[in-house]
Amino acid sequence: MKNPQKFRYIFLALISVFLLSTNFQNLHAQNAKKNKVRLKANYIKIMDSLSYIELTAVSKIKKQNTKVSNIELNIYNEFDDDKIKIGNVITNMKGESKFIIKNLNTIKPDSTSTYNILISFKGNDSFKKSNKRISFKDANIEANLIKKDSTNYITATLINASTNSPITDESLDIQVQRLFRPLRIGEEFNNTNENGTIIVPIEKGIPGVNGILTFEVVLNDSDDYGTVKTLIEAPIGVPIVDESTFNQRTLWSPRNKTPLFLLIFANLIILGIWGIIVYLILNLLKISKSKT
Amino acid sequence: MKNFKTLVKDLAPKKFGKLDIIWTCFLILIIFIGIAAYIDQLIKGQEVTNMRDYALWGIYISNFVFFVATSFVGSVTVAILRLTNNEWRTPLVRIAEIISVAAIVMAGITIMIDMARPDRLLNLFIHARLQSPITWDVFIIPTYMVISLLLLYFPLIPDFAILKKYFKKKDPKLSKWYGKLSLNWTGSVAQKAIQTKSIRIIAIMIIPIGLLLQTIDAWLFSTTYRIGWDSTNFAPYFISGALVAGIGALISVIYVVRKYKKLEDYITDFHFDKLGKLLVLACLTYLYFNVNEYLIPAFTSKKGESIHLDTLFTGAYAPLFWSVTIVGLILPIIVLLFKKGRKPLPMFIVGLVVVVGSWWKRFVIVTPTLLHPFLPIQGVPESWHHYFPSLHEWLITVATLAMALLIITLLVRYLPVIPIQRTADELGLMENDKIKNTES
């Protein structure tokens, strides 16, 4: 062999190519196209209860909308060119999460009493970074049940919380809570008047457990105020009569709820027949002993 | 006129002949094949059957219903004929009792074969739910089994005493067994009184219990609210069907036993004539309930039931339905209405046809209904819409039938098939003379 050193170099070169190729793969993975996360945010306020921002993270992967789970979203309060982190949440398996605002006073509004919130996702190996901004003003709904000429009405007033002035010409939904989704009552649009008030009659005969109905007055997904909701409970429904036989002794109930007549008669028949059978077997013994 | 010696000689059990041994071995072979198939079913599960989500009751259940129906013969011939003072029943009752015992024992075994997990049998008692007709069935079958055994045993006691004497020299070992079974019977006044009273109690008791057994069997179906089963007519329909199956089986077995045991002097054409008339009555009653069961729904049926009836009348099950109705029910009525049709051989053929018809009739009752479920499953395999038993099911079912025949064969071998004492009494022989005569 003329130059064995040559082979050593070729060997090293091959090893280098092999080792580098794995790094190239990593590099390729890093350069792979990341998916874009689309964030949705809704501000929801439930009167005398809690306020929260409802968040959803979605991404279009292979032309299909896919929920993005288990990503961290940071929530910032933006004001006067400044931003303060007020918390963070992680999306669940459905790509959803809820950021609860314990006290709205801890968030600073801008000069127009508008709260500006930035939701930020800083990105990861699979998804690009993404931001979403929402702005809302604080509003209240004051709702009452009144009765006029034997008809029940719901009156509700929508008020701008920062100025304490009525909000006019906004549509409020009146609905009663049902098992799967609320039942709308009244007209399709119930716009607030110059006093920020609506009045909606409640039709009779709505069934409710023990006659109690829970009404919702909702300002739904307003551009300025988000969603504001108030609940009123009122005993004006028709009580639901429970027709279930679950706790009764029936022919279709479990064994510990056997009807008494069946328990008594069936057992009497069984005992009666087997009593006679025992008597007959005893008669066999008697025959055996009665030789004479 | 026969004397007592010849009477006992005629009626005492006889050793197996060559043909009997071949017959018994044949039955045992079928049973062994069936047991092998059953073991395979236990290992592999019910998958080896053709029962699926639709036809979840198959041939095992229709076979079970057939056995339950056949077991009714004990109640009919013994109890009803006894209470109506039909004296001609004497040479027939023992065979009826034997068939009853064999059928009800096999009904109990067959229902266990249908259970995928027989090791959980005890759960039926531990977790019994009294509202369920299945629970009632669990109670009534052992009850009827015990009563049928008692009905067979009580009248046998004096005969065992006679056989003990008869076989004392001929076969001491057999004589010893008969002696034990005779319960020290001497024919004393006290023993006779107890025995007579007991038989009377059983004869009365077995009628409501027999009716209850058939009724519960019918309610297993009619309480399930399924098309073809949801009928208030079902219990009497089953009872009348049981009469047909039972009497048909009785006629067939009696003919064979009479021929091979040479009992023509005891079971005469007169008895066949009477049995023929009884079978006609049973068939007519059953036909009446069949008309009720199918004609009225034909008028009033809604869509689901119409489909079911079409399947029976003109559809896939039409050949079977019309065969069991015409050949298995109407034709026997026509044949038996003629005196010549009530002779032993025609009666035997009619009996066999009735039994086969009765067996397939249960298949027609059970299967088509299951193939039309209330809540059809979406996208079920095409094969689930049809049911015909698998080889495993056939082998096991034929083995159960063979087992019933084996029980009958063995009981016919070791028991006097015609009550000796009662026949002697009817011939006017005193009991003391009988025993003396037998000993001499």
Please explain how this structure is put together.
The complex is a heterodimer of chains A (292) and B (440). Chain A has two helices and 18 strands. Chain A has 292 residues and is of the alpha+beta class. In chain A, strands 1, 2, 3, 6, 12, 13, 16 and 17 form an eight-stranded mixed β-sheet that branches. A four-stranded antiparallel β-sheet of chain A has the order 5-4-7-8, with no helix packed on it. Chain B has a single domain, classed as Formate dehydrogenase/DMSO reductase domain (Formate dehydrogenase/DMSO reductase fold, Up-down Bundle), CATH 1.20.1630. In chain B, helix 3 (59-70) packs antiparallel against helix 5. Chain B is globular, with a radius of gyration of 23 Å.
Could you outline the blueprint of secondary structure elements for this entry?
The complex is a heterodimer of chains A (292) and B (440).
Chain A: H1 4-31, E1 37-46, E2 51-61, E3 64-67, E4 72-79, E5 82-90, E6 96-101, E7 114-121, E8 130-137, E9 139-148, E10 151-160, E11 165-166, E12 172-176, E13 183-185, E14 197-202, E15 207-208, E16 213-222, E17 226-234, E18 238-239, H2 260-289
Parallel strand pairs in A: 1-17, 15-18
Antiparallel strand pairs in A: 1-2, 2-3, 2-6, 4-5, 4-7, 7-8, 9-10, 10-11, 10-14, 12-13, 12-16, 16-17
Chain B: H1 4-11, H2 18-44, H3 59-70, H4 73-83, H5 90-113, H6 123-126, H7 133-170, H8 172-181, H9 189-222, H10 234-260, H11 269-300, H12 303-313, H13 318-337, H14 344-370, H15 391-414, H16 420-427, H17 431-439
Helix pairs in contact in B: 2-15, 3-5, 3-10, 3-14, 4-5, 4-9, 4-10, 5-7, 5-10, 5-15, 7-8, 7-9, 9-10, 10-11, 10-14, 11-13, 12-13, 13-14
Question: How is this structure best summarized?
Answer:
With 292 residues, chain A is α+β, with helices and mostly antiparallel strands.
